[in-house]
Amino acid sequence: MAGSTFGERLKVTTFGESHGEAVGAIVEGVTPGVELDEAYIQVQMDRRRPGQSSVTTPRKEYDKIRILSGLFEGRTTGTPLCIMLDNTDMRPSAYDDIKSMYRPGHADFTYEKKYGVRDYRGSGRASGRETAARVAAGAVARKLLEHRNVKVLAYTTEIGGIRCGTFDPEVIESNVVRACDPAAAERMVKRIKELAAKGDSCGGIVECRISGVPAGLGEPVFDKLDAELAKAMLSIGAVKGIEFGAGFQAAAMLGSEHNDQMDASGFQTNHAGGVIGGISTGADIVFRVAVKPTSSISVPQRTIDTGGNEREIVTKGRHDPCICPRVVPVIEAMACLVIEDHYKRQAALLDN
Known about the structure:
Elements: E1 5-6, E2 11-16, E3 22-28, H1 38-48, E4 65-69, E5 71-72, E6 75-76, E7 81-86, H2 108-115, H3 131-146, E8 151-159, E9 162-163, H4 182-197, E10 204-211, H5 225-234, E11 239-244, H6 255-258, E12 262-263, E13 266-267, E14 275-276, E15 279-280, E16 285-291, E17 301-304, E18 310-313, H7 324-351
Antiparallel strand pairs: 1-2, 2-3, 3-7, 4-7, 5-6, 8-9, 8-10, 10-16, 11-16, 12-13, 14-15, 17-18
Helix pairs in contact: 1-3, 1-7, 3-7, 5-7
């Protein structure tokens, strides 16, 4: 399927649908001889899996991975690495009543217009279930980046209009919304539950910080590092916007304020978010993404059916009232894939 492969030197192809037999990823370009096992990847899968808290979907997918190829005696072989996850808790019958209607906010209408056919069972390829394969592939890239002393950390900074006021990396994995402010996290959880009780949903903002990347990564002019990260993030179905460093606030700043001046110790500020001219500066790469409210809600909405008739629709099923908590590991995974790919592209450049 066109559009299902990402990357140049580290290439990832995902496959599978939400209510199909399985989802998975094929990762090509993996450095040979790297120690890797299923348990390492499973740590990241457990962070993304459904049913992990009171503010996520109750769908019970344990996301136990199987590595089918590319691994021998605990080390990568350099050949394509195939990772598969069986779907075990599918309920396609939940969509029988609305299979002829287009759900607002979903890709039902656009997929049918593009392909002339669509999988109405939980959105098929357009489902958030596809991101499980990304997290598995991203874990492989994370392992490669560990050898480069690169760290990738994402966390929630806003949900439902409630913003974090402090930053404590130690609390991110200790609260169910993965927020960097424990006090704000409590208010976020309360807000999500209030909306869920009404059958509604909310969105938020997730920030990602990549540390340890040296100056010099990025491929101008069309494959700028920030452009590649932006493409990776916007390929996630729930993400509707991205900004780096000062981001949209730069529009209100003066050049003398926004420019990252330098002294003998390096950059004095990081308004650029660690990327200038599409190339990493050596400072932390910092970006934020806007995560839309979950489209599947039980509030009655207006739509049309496949015959063009106006209808009222209520989406039933098991859905996250807020996507932010489970999209955090997906964002990290995509960031890992981009950074490792550009390390390999830089190495190829220097070998010429």
